[in-house]
Design a protein that fits this description.
Blueprint: H1 8-35, H2 42-48, H3 67-80, H4 82-102, H5 105-116, E1 122-125, E2 141-145, E3 148-159, E4 166-172, E5 182-188, E6 194-198, E7 210-221, E8 225-226, H6 232-268, E9 270-271, E10 274-275, H7 280-309, H8 314-339, H9 350-360, H10 367-379
Parallel strand pairs: 1-4
Antiparallel strand pairs: 2-3, 3-7, 4-5, 5-8, 6-7, 9-10
Helix pairs in contact: 1-3, 3-4, 3-6, 3-7, 4-5, 4-6, 6-7, 6-8, 6-9, 7-8, 8-9, 8-10
This protein binds flavin-adenine dinucleotide (FAD).
Flavin-adenine dinucleotide binds near residues 126, 158 and 372.
Length: about 400
């Protein structure tokens, strides 16, 4: 059976997230963008509504909803402001869901529960100044000394780093082993040698915060290592499956926002004695936005459904991310065109949509990386391997 309806719980969550976004997020979006201001006051409000642990099981402090619900929240938030969506797709998607898959019970108690409740904020540190797409080109190292690892290195472009309490970082425990030599660690704020510098001057996502993270002889207890030594690469890839999902849903929200703004403008702007919506070439732009919106939504819904079933979904999530983010850039570009000269001014939100959209085809795998991934699956060079990397199926209790 194929069913495209949201259930009652999902619809209520969607309504609540949309209302929150309209009341608490949208009114500040333009000013935060202008001032490059991250509105940290939103965090406790999101926590109160359960958004910071939306799809984390209740026994780990979350709202216990399914993975589609994570997407619904991301889509609703990004409709109002990409910066607010970033909080959820990074904190929940990249970080908390990784703890859910890979953490020990003790680590879940220590890190996941406070994150799901929104008392602690998590970020994800993979990229370095000289290694982004080329993950294995990273320089960070972790040297075991007794019951600690000593971490050294620098991470770059880390979303939420300036406000984060838990830094999920990746470093080589054995460089010779390449992909099998990376390990994952939770570094806690305040750890000796850990410092964060906020990045300013971004083209978009100016209401979001990102930073570089330096680790200088930072001691990290062995108890903070996620997974086994050498499992860091697969852990990072599984994290990206979930971060990309929130991003795909969020970018869909951005397409919707660009489209709605374009429709409203096309209905009100007069040219040649009639609303510009009556001009066929303007209709063409609106129609293209509709096609992008509907297709992007179907792709992330399918990926969310697969996550709920506990199925591997790297290929489907990647496709959803690639399509929705390129779609967001295109839809925002079209929105500027529909607005004519006014689209070039921050009097209307569409120029901000464009600048925000532009980041989405760069992070969590550039569009080029997603093309390679799709082609490699098609060619049989890549196939699903480890079921350990997937989320626990929704609604199925693990055996105690
Ligand atoms: C706003 C923002 C927030 C971010 N947040 C985070 C975060 O929270 N955590 C984190 O770890 N990182 C984060 N990043 C970093 C982001 O994931 C990287 O920028 C991204 O992976 C690309 O890496 P790079 O910038 O080093 O570019 P490069 O990898 O140097 O790529 C440069 C160009 O070469 C192309 N290219 C590279 N390799 C190939 C290849 N094999 N085949 C074809 N083309 C290729 C790329 O597609 C791109 O066009 C963020 C970035 C931005 C802009």
């Amino acid at each position: 059976m194929l069913d495209f309806r949201l259930d009652e719980e999902q619809r209520l969550l969607q309504d609540m997230a949309r209302e929150f976004a309209a009341k608490e997020v949208a009114p500040q979006a333009r000013e935060n963008d202008e001032r490059q201001h991250f509105d940290a006051d939103l965090l406790p409000k999101m926590a109160d509504l359960g958004l910071l642990g939306v799809c984390i099981p209740e026994r780990y402090g979350g709202a216990g909803m399914d993975y589609v619900s994570l997407g619904l929240v991301c889509e609703a938030l990004e409709y109002a402001d990409s910066s607010a969506r970033t909080v959820v797709s990074v904190h929940v998607g990249l970080n908390s869901l990784t703890l859910l898959i890979w953490g020990t019970e003790e680590q879940k108690e220590r890190f996941l529960v406070p994150q799901a409740q929104g008392r602690k904020i998590g970020c994800f540190g993979l990229t370095e100044p000289n290694a982004g797409s080329d993950v294995l080109g990273m320089q960070a190292t972790a040297r075991r000394v007794g019951e600690y690892y000593v971490l050294n290195g620098e991470k770059m472009w880390i979303s939420l780093a300036p406000v984060a309490d838990h830094f999920l970082v990746f470093a080589y425990t054995d460089r010779e082993k390449r992909a099998r030599g990376l390990s994952a660690f939770v570094v806690e704020k305040g750890a000796p040698g850990l410092s964060v510098a906020e990045i300013h001057g971004k083209m978009g996502l100016r209401g979001s915060c990102a930073g570089s993270v330096a680790l200088s002889d930072t001691p990290v207890p062995v108890a903070n290592r996620l997974g086994e030594e050498g499992e860091g690469f697969v852990i990072a890839m599984s994290a990206l499956d979930n971060g990309r999902f929130g991003l795909a849903a969020g970018a869909t929200g951005l397409i919707a926002a660009a489209h709605d703004a374009s429709v409203a403008y096309a209905q009100s702007r007069q040219a040649f004695g009639a609303p510009i919506g009556q001009l066929q070439l303007v209709k063409e732009m609106l129609a293209e936005q509709v096609s992008l919106l509907e297709a992007a939504r179907l792709l992330w819904w399918r990926a969310g459904w697969m996550k709920n079933q506990g199925q591997p979904n790297t290929r489907e999530t990647s496709l959803a991310k690639w399509f929705a983010t390129e779609g967001a850039v295109r839809a925002a570009d079209l929105a500027i065109q529909v607005h004519g000269g006014y689209g070039y001014s921050n009097e209307y939100p569409v120029e901000r949509f464009y600048r925000n959209a532009r980041a989405t085809t760069l992070y969590e795998g550039t569009s080029q990386i997603h093309k390679l991934l799709q082609a490699d699956f098609a060619l049989g060079y890549r196939a699903y391997k480890s079921p350990r990397c997937t989320l626990p199926p929704y609604g199925v209790e693990e055996e105690e």
